[in-house]
Amino acid sequence: MKRIGVDVGGTFTDLIYASDEDQRILVHKTPTTPQDPSVATLTGVEELCRMAETEPASVDQVFHGTTIATNIVVEHNGAKVGMITTEGYRDILHIARHKKPLNFSNYQDLPWQRYPIVRRRYRLTVPERVLADGSVLVPLDEDAVRDAARRLKEEGCEAVAVCLLFSFVNPEHETKVRSILEEEFPEAYLSVSSEVLPQYREYERFSTVALNAYVGPKVARYVDRLDGGLRERGVRAGLHLMTSASGVATPQGAVERPVNLLMSGPIAGVVGGIWAGRQAGFDNVITLDVGGTSADIGLAQRGELRMKHLLDTRVGPYQAMIPMVDVDTIGAGGGSVAYVDAGGMFHVGPRSAGADPGPASYDRGGTEPTATDAMVELGRIPPDNFLGGNMDLRPELAHEAMERLGQKLDMSAEKAAAGALAVLVAGMVQSIEENSVRKGYDPRDFALVAGGGAGPMFAAEVGREVGTPKVVVPRYPGIMAAVGLLATDMVYEYVRTYYDLVSTLDRGRLQEQFAELEEEALTQLREDGLSEDRMVVERVIDCRYVGQGYELRVNAESGEIDDAWLRKLAAAFHDAHEREYSRRFEENDIQIVNVRVRGVGLMEELRLPEIEAGDARPDDAAHHGKREVWFHVDGELKKVECDFYDRELLRAGNKIQGPAVLTQFDTTIVVPPGLDAEVDGSGNVVIDCTGGEAAGVIEAAAEKAEAGGA
Amino acid sequence: MTTEMDTATFAELGRLPGPPTRERVPVDPITMRVLTGAFRATAQEMAGVLFRMSYSSIIRESEDLGCGLFDHEGREICESESTPMHIGSLPWYIRGFMRRLKGKIREGDVIIHNHPYHGASHTPDIAVAVPVFFEGELLGFSAVTAHVLDVGGSFPGVNADAFDVYAEGKLYDGLRLYQGGELNEDLDRHLFENVRTEDMNRGDMNAMIASCELGRRRMVELCARYGVDTVMSSAYDLMDYSERMLRQEIEKLPDGEYTAPTAWLDDDARNRDVRLRVETKVIVEGGDISIDLTGSNAEVPTGYNVPYEGSLLVGAYFAIRTILLDEATFPEYVPQNEGVFRPVKVIAPKGTIFNPNFPRACFSRFCQVQRVVDNTILALADVLPEKVTAGNSAHVNFCSYSGFLEEQQQYWIYLEVNEGSYGGRFGKDGMDSVDNLMANTRNNPIEELDMRFPIRNEQYELRPEPAAPGRWRGGLGIVRRNRFLVDGTYSSEGDRHTDPPRGILGGWDGLTASLVKNPDGEAPEELPAKVTGAPFAAGELLQILGPNAAGYGNPLDRPPGDVREDVLDDFTSIELARDAYGVVIEPGTLEVDGPATEKLRAELRGRHADGNGSLIDHVSSNPSERRPNPISAASERAFSE
């Protein structure tokens, strides 16, 4: 099978090609085209196929991770959304769960009120009410719906969210609203709650459905263009998109429910980081994937992705009740702009110069100093070897930009540059601590896997601050998310709300539910061209003790539903409950809430060929001389002599002493003074962060911990 | 002599244990950071277990609970970020039951406590505590509090008008449900067979015990990994750190006394025409701060008194920490623990509603504590204008809907916390429709309510009247309609039906709350804020309005463009834009008439320079358009057939 992974970041579009038959792996990178990211994606696929000397038509699958949906929410430039909802409930999105994000604050903002996804003026109500049992108390006022549809059209809305109470029990009213909207306002993107998320809890449902409408029009246009483009080029099974749960969505699924793509990009990065960590021999990893615009931080203990609880799944501050891998994103990247605000405060990011106009040193019209310019100014990025020599940087432009910044801060250009990097690193450290230390994980048990074009520049400093003993820079750090797209099995999940009690279960009906979902899953996997031996269909049931309000996911057996099957299900649930809450109540009845089927397409394990072994001392050919680079030494910013290496020419076993800079096609690895690095058999660069000052503290702490614990 | 001294000290400090005496070892900064995170995460994890596993919606959906780790004298090491009214009460519960159980605690004990004169917040907030032993040493407790549906008082759920503390609920004073790991079956039966909602209480109790067990296990794991001395030293060092951070902020305030305007509570739940006085003075002396409630009303003969330790002190801690270490604006993360309690004292003379004599009932105490917090904020308005808010809703509408199902021979009880709103703030409008100050529960989804209880919700949105005007407007309250589908009773504790939230620095006062039975019927009945056991027949409807909080600063200073936005979103009306803000908006185009606005603003400035006016008068002379509620109309028809 031939597969391509494409990850569209804010600045670059990363691609990886893997051919299972001849074990070939190729990587490629092309600047993102922000106006229409599908342009760069399609060009990249063509270029990569040329490199692989193959036709796009011979590629089986293209896996795609995209931040497009997330960026729309974060940058708040989604569609103008209108809402049609039940009269008497205009403000469900405004009230939310009436709970403040912070306990001890009178000055916090409620983001759903301050930056509403649907402004109150576009939330229109219509008389109707379905009751909890699905019966109709107030029939739908169709004239009111028609008026509302016309008004939203006049107001220039692009998308409409249809959110009526109890539509998950009886969707008739919503279906009717949809058909009226299709008549009156056919150009609108529609997001109907009973279709997008037929689950109870009105605020969470409405919020998810509104977000779906908010990102829908842009995402739909994008996916259509991309899938169309790939099909024109003959890619057999077309496009597959990674979902927020690290599963797979088809183009049609993505257009209907773009909300499932939120967080897609960052999650692929975590998967890629876990894979790279495993290659380097680390099961516990913290992943730091830094692109041009943002940094994504993930954590996996024993190689397992952490999922967020369904009530904690947010995008930015907005609730989206969709299964989601736990990843944190902050606005810090290579393109982050360093600036001084009106009040004299120094900021780096979250605003980014992106790829266009890009950092000042790109000479594409950008004049504001960015983190990349800071690196150039300090001499850590050699200007003549950027992007494998495909792009020349102009250090004098970086210098001018830094000088302008320095004037505002009353300091030299290099001090301003070092300051900007320090601010950026501190933000990453803080966020990693939020996700590890503050959740009770000890960073000393983890390796930091650094990816993205900018991650390896900062990783050693971040690792030293956070306290991870090792930093792993994978073979292809710049495309960690793209690698992640190919480093996981293909998982489709199908879900249906289905209430029943285990004690009085209608076995035939449950069997039917499963059979239908299983057929859907198998059809999809067959369409993807998988052979039967690579298809696995799994059953999952969400259940709880009768009377409880939150469900647990339990794996169920395949096969016929008989007494033995039910006994196993009950036992599995009691076990899961005990694992989660440390208690079990075998005398209580169990309620089934949702049934799920997971269709898994097993992929070949992605394997990189081992690199050639060398001595401790790198080959002379790999050494690209010494240059003066600014570093903090003994608390002072100084120019020190620094070794430069070509990473592509390093061999397994090579040892490198900081200060050193390792350049490669898509990134630059900085090894600060006092730290050492080694190249392992898979070509990973592993930096030892336990040297230097900070390390002394860590070791002392570890020793003390051991002594105390004994 | 000694007794009198003790009483005097107790009245101002509670049963404080003094500084911790366990010997400390130095802890390096990285381990310290790791343990800070582990404590916080453990408390959060405990809360997660409790609300996800529990049965009643008051715990599961509303998260009316608190969880944490405490040392053997009740010093708080960490507590979950759930509802602030619970945060900081557990130390007093622990000290309350330890007065009986000191020296008798064994591994495997499960202790139940709710005595409001021995540290409890109020009777329905039951605490469960499990001792944490490490190598034979009692380090402390893993403990939770949660609001249970019913504690067997005179009326189901809520008992604002109770004769005495025995009538408000069953009292559990340091009872051991498990001793050394063994269940006391007789006590178990006694506990659960004397409440109206046995199954729910049992399910919730199981969740509470599971949560405590998890906390205990995590604490033991930390000690095994890092060493018990390191863990406990970190805990105590962190308390010192939090204390230092708070004292630094107090020291920035000029020493002196800052007095809030007198606040009035509606009534005591029985004597309807007698308002209750709340006097508040904030005293700053160096790094210490006191809230002095001298002059406040004498204790009342109903359940509208405040337990001093478990509720009033908690409110005072909350007020000071929130104003001075606001989590959104203060740059450092200051862990919530014993340290933030230490600089705060409360003076509440014995025999007042804030420090009642045994056996006065004290079931309903939330609104009074809210007013103390609001008054503390208002008292500091002149000295801290950039950190205070205009008058808040500073209430809660906590109510119980209940009935008896003949067929099942079972009670049903549904508890509901209705939200308020925040006053305008320096640089920001007030927050709308949100739990105010010490309340921070989650609302119960309507779809959950309608599915599980014989109640139908018919409206839940922002109330139709405009927001209180100000340079930064006040927050809007909600309107909510619930209809009984079977015969039942309604009880509530609320307030704010007579004394509206107070505007500051030229902002207008807000609007009061109200409760109306059968609002669309021929004889709508206005109910007081505190109702005990009011019968509702099947088909009868209740309408709840939450207060609109007050405005901050002169509304004539609000940019006309912002006023127009408010009009477009119905946060204010064209009439009020004109009368309060001096902004003239064309009704047809909804555009601002610039010249007319300038002229009107000049005129209004001349007339009342302070900007203040009465929203209540404006609303009564400009009633908002009332469309009949289609759901209520359909329900009425269905019930009359």
TrEMBL record, chain A:
Pfam families: Hydant_A_C, Hydant_A_N, Hydantoinase_A
Residue ranges of domain Acetophenone carboxylase-like C-terminal in the record: 509-680
Signal peptide: none
Listed GO CC annotations: cytosol
InterPro entries reported for this sequence: ACX-like_C, ATPase_NBD, Hydant_A_N, Hydantoinase_A, Oxoprolinase-like
Residues annotated as domain Hydantoinase/oxoprolinase N-terminal: 3-184
Hydantoinase A/oxoprolinase domain: residues covered: 205-493
Gene Ontology MF annotations: 5-oxoprolinase (ATP-hydrolyzing) activity
GO BP: glutathione metabolic process
Protein name per the record: Hydantoinase/oxoprolinase family protein
Provenance organism: Rubrobacter marinus
Taxonomic lineage of the native organism: Bacteria, Bacillati, Actinomycetota, Rubrobacteria, Rubrobacterales
